[in-house]
Amino acid sequence: MKLYYIPTTRAVRPRWLLEEMGIEYELITVSMEMSRQPEYRILHPHGKVPVLVDDQVTIFESAAICTYLADKYLEKGFAPKINSPARAYYYQWLFYASLTLEAPVEQYLFHVLPNLPEKVLPKAEKTRVTSEEVKEWFAKVCQPLNQLLQDNDYLVENRFTAADIVTGGVLLWASKLGMLTDESPVKAYITKLGQRSALQRADIDVDAQVD
Q: Taking the domains of the chain in order of start, what are their residue ranges?
């Protein structure tokens, strides 16, 4: 099993899950030069990370990789059983993190790092809303998480799953960007997740701030 990886990117999320599971894998750090090569574009059409290669499976998108791994090693307990009612909520938070929560965080990233290269997003889209508007947007999409985490430590069945890794990965970005300024259940949640040794192995800069 191979994981193609760049530090402090979405690739931290599947690496974190692999570390939590204790699964052996080969970590391949992708350079910018490597990402432009035709051979790498076969693995990822946009030259991005992460990519997981597992025998006959070659898959990209961090949430998809985490979902695949959690199901492949279901006995490890990082996903609810297939027919469990909890499976619906597990899917809910996986998709919420990827589609709703991450959007304002990525938008804010381009305000903090305006020269950050983006291989897909049109340049005009990077600052289509102001940084203050992005913060308000982010606060709104955090509301369901804050409500749930008032009385729960984790998102699904109150136990740690791949949904926490995908959601935590997004919130880790937000934390690094200084978006979690107020005391809240979400801030306490990402602080607790940041103490997990598997995440610290997956992201050596887990406590770093983006300036």
A: 2-76, 86-196
DSSP lists the bridge partners of residue 53 as: 2, 58
Structure confidence at residue 41 (pLDDT) = 96
In terms of Cβ atoms closer than 10 Å to its own Cβ (0-12, 13-18, 19+), residue 116 is exposed
Which residue in the block uniquely carries the two structure tokens 């049109």?
122
Residue pLDDT, tens place only, 186-196: 999 999 999 99
State the DSSP string of 41-100: HHH-TTS-S-EEEETTEEEE-HHHHHHHHHHHTGGGSSS--TT-THHHHHHHHHHIIIII
| CATH entry 1.20.1050.10 includes domain 86-196 | yes
User: What is the per-residue pLDDT across 55-107, written as a single tens digit (0 to 9) for each?
Assistant: 999 999 999 999 999 999 999 999 999 999 999 999 999 999 999 999 999 99
Listing DSSP states for 120-148 in one string gives SS-GGGTTSS-HHHHHHHHHHHHHHHHHH
Q: Are residues 47 and 41 in contact, defined by beta-carbon separation less than 8 angstroms?
A: yes
Give the per-residue pLDDT at 119.
60
CATH class as words, domain 2-76: alpha beta
Of 178, 211, 210, nearest to 8 by C-alpha is 210
- Six token digits for residue 1: 């099993």
Name the token pair of 70.
């959690």
For helices 162-176 and 62-72, give the axis angle rounded to 10 degrees: 150
CA distance 88 to 25: 29
